[in-house]
Amino acid sequence: MHSLIPSANLPPRSDLDLQNALTPTPKPLEANPLPSSTSLSDARVDITRPAARRRSWFAGESAKFWLMMTPALIGFIVFSAGPMLVSLYLSFTKYDIVSPPKWIGIRNYLYLLRNDPAFWPSVKVTAIYASASVPLSLTIALLIAMLLNQRMVARNLFRTIFFLPALLPAAASGVVWVWIFDPTRGLLNHLLAVVGIPGPAWMESTTWALPALIIMSLWGFGRAMVIFLAGLQEVPQQLYEAAELDGASSWHRFYHVTLPVISPVLFFNLVIGIIDALKAFDLAFVTSTTAGAGAGGPARATLLYTLNLYQKAFNYFHMGLGSAMAWLLFLAILLLTAINFRLEKHWVHTS
Amino acid sequence: MTGSGIPSSTTTSRTSAPLRWLIWPCLLVGSFVMLLPLAWMILTSLKTFPETLADPPTWIPAHFQWGNYLQAIHGFEFSRYFANSLFVTVGCIAGTLVSASLSAYALVAFKVRGKNIVFGLLLSTMMLPAQVTVIPLFRLYVGLHWINTFRPLIVPSWFGWDVFSIFLLRQFFVQIPRDYIEAARIDGASELRILLTVFVPLAKPALLTVAVFTFIGTWNDLWNPLLYLYDEKLYTLPLALMQFIAVAGTAQGTPWQLVMAIATIMMIPVVIVFFLAQKRFIEGISAAGIKG
Amino acid sequence: MSQAAANANECDSISPRIAGRFWVTCLCLLVFPPAGCRRTSAPSAPASAAHAERQVTLTWLLSTEQIRPVTEAIVADFERANPDIHVQLRWTPEPQYQTKLKTLIAAGQPPDLFWCGDVWIAYLQPFMYDLTPFVQRDAAEYHLNDIYPALRRACQWSGRWYYLPRFFNVSLLYYNKGLFDAAHEPYPTANWTWMNYIAAGQRLTRRNADGAVLTWGSTIVTGWWGEWYILVRQAGGEMFNPQVTRCELNSPQAIAGMTLYADKIFRYKISPAPGYGPGYGRAIGFASGKYAMEFGGHTGNWPVFDAIPGLDWDIQLLPKGPDGHSGGEVAVDAVGISKRCAHPEQAWRLLKFLTNEASARRYVRAGLLSIRRSVAEESFRHLNPSYHPQHLRTAYDALAYAEPLPQSRDFIEIALEIIQPEVDRILSEHVPVPVACQRATEAADAFLDTISQSSAAIGP
Predict the structure, then answer these.
(1) How far apart are CA A156 and CA B275, in angstroms?
(2) Is C278 an interface residue toward B (CB < 8 Å)?
(3) Structure pTM?
(4) In the complex, which subunits touch B with 3 or more CB pairs below 8 angstroms?
């Protein structure tokens, strides 16, 4: 056993020791240099250290936390919170960009919930899109990540191939999708014809345009896959070996060994997946305008929430209304994320 | 200390024989499906303009028009835009890695009241559609005199703008046993030292993932350069690509062969970076995992 | 023993150096932003300091266009003729143009001049400089009456001038001479009616033994009002009453127009159902050479047609509807001045220059249509036998029939977001035309009612 951090190797007071330099915490190292033989196990069992020093460490924790969070907090206040609050204010105004905003209270929200003919259709489209796309793409991403975590030939190549669609610029991929889903000449309907299924009109059909959009979104599973792959690197082989010796089935091994270890990244992918799916914009914008139907068409079948928002705010100059839509979405995502975090402690394993 | 989620020397899992036979057909079919869009893109980049409009569409062009690539590169100052894109991308990656790892470490290593509120606030910035903050943000940059500079594209990433990365790193950092922090602290290591010597090496796959995602996101970003730059000397590749498409054809008559050629050229660095990075995921782990 | 420990151990000796460099770099980047980050000064003519002081800079935000070199040459000419004015062109890709313009306006950084079609004027009008005094003052010197009357009309909003056109688009009937010749079909004439169009379309729609269509009689425009609105008007119907307070799409005339639109696909089968036509997506179907005719079309596509080998085509006026007129839309590509422009007089000078005879000649040479009658007449004299379209004059004749879009702020939003979904259902869900027209009318009326209330969240 080697020591975790042999104090002999520690520079006495490095210049970059910003944390210690800037916090009023006493420096235990200088005050009481540790003997060079101190090892990790010693340190861990050494609870006989003076209690006072321990407390002072924790007293400094708060200061250190805020110090390390400073860049992010400055960024949050300047680049995020400010603009967010402005948009919150605008959501209570009538603002057509060319003239100053006018306070109208909650009328934007009332209009959206009661009068706007496109609001509820776009909520429905987005709900269906998210509830199909998130579980499907996470399942595929996890499966492929586990396959590509095997010892095998050309593994790196396969990993790259499966990630490729996530690299395509939207302008290029949109055209490809429109071609693949073309009713008469498209690849997909040709493949379906081989199996004897007459394919639908996909992007031009009010029934099939949304499923087509969901299928397209699945190609983007590469990002979640890469995160799963990184997470899978944390699964200790010894656990597998132990499980194998116990005669555990593959499912058993997955459920009891792999899943707990990757649960934090699974949780991450779930939270991010939901946020991204509810905010999805690019794909629907590119495909529905590249295909014959107008943006969100045909008949609002692909009118994702954010697409509707964008059109209101930027095409029709209802910036106040668009801001109200954004804040309603914000509340919905906040609620779902809060539920996710509430459930986190029941299934996500942390050390 | 086994069994606490520490990466071990070999990280691949083994499978039973029948499953192993299933893997190959799955992977091959999957790869085929994944490669379709790319193949279409590259083949289209080698067609003539009438061929891009052919009906029924053809897969393989009659003659490979390699000249499209020359035309695409000569169409604009490729090296300048490439350099601009590279500058912005590198600046963003560095900023994101620094600010995200600092924040993620702080969120994991300290038991502080209000920590979850801070994390929640950071996360909440991802929940509001960006479309409605465009105008206030633009006003802010006007006030800072940042318009028509790279600053709006780079500086925010140094200030934890990329909450996605903070969150991702946090998820990896929480898996590192707290014992390590405690032990290192007792040994007198500063927090920055613990972050750099314990967390960074152990979370290399995660840091690489963050770097790769930031690379892709920044490299392909069209909207931010579009809003904040007007001097064509400062254009990044995607913006220059859009300009080129617009000059080369009308909205209805896009020269797809050139679009696809530029898109292909634009993709090459990303593919190389990803290919190298994902190799390093494993190497990074093996290096970190030398048994003591 | 853990790997982490070993690793920490190993890294310990080198990390301070790396970390040090790392922090120094961070600080440097923040304190001294790299050269590329510096604010670049506006490129201005390298004249004497005194000269630079007197020089006025105008910014012009315009969507990147195929004829960018032409516009740049015109601007260079202008700067030579007006050394006291520098024009800064800010090109923006077309799909993002509106977002950029609106962001600039909202942020108080509007360009001095900007592109404005006749559709967007409805929204931008409060932000545009009223050019009426300038136009009245300079009408004679500027040869205002040389501009086609239909275009002059399209440039006014409630009787006031807000922008000037550079070139224009007008609805026409395009035909593929090769397919007409192969079917021994006479070319369309100016006297064609809907019936001629349908009958010829049916004869020109050719199928193979399996019933699969080889060539279609005509294209059909889906996803927006482009075609159905023309048909509704040709049948004597309208989308709105003149005050734009009531939708009139459920009138018998409007229904007749919309019926022809649906019948082209379902009854006469001269046009493909959405998605089933040659040329995928928005790629121009007519360019595929598999449509005998294109209804409406866009003059901006002429260069694309010319790039297709063997595509021999020409133009004719739109076939007349039951109402007896050929109708169609006219759309101007125009430039306006921002209300906040600090140098309106100089901007007006640029605007006049962009739309004078010399500039019109340059645009015509680039294959666009002239806004000025005198330049158009010149171009007819120089027509060579290989030029497409041979009946160039027809494009200008069509101006006499074209009708402007309703001058209402809410026209586009109602047409695209409220009426269009119901029209989509006619084509993709086979909803009967009268039912769809009724639903569209009710939805549009409900919207008009909402915005007419002074307390409404949207509306004026």
Answers:
(1) 7
(2) yes
(3) 0.85
(4) A, C
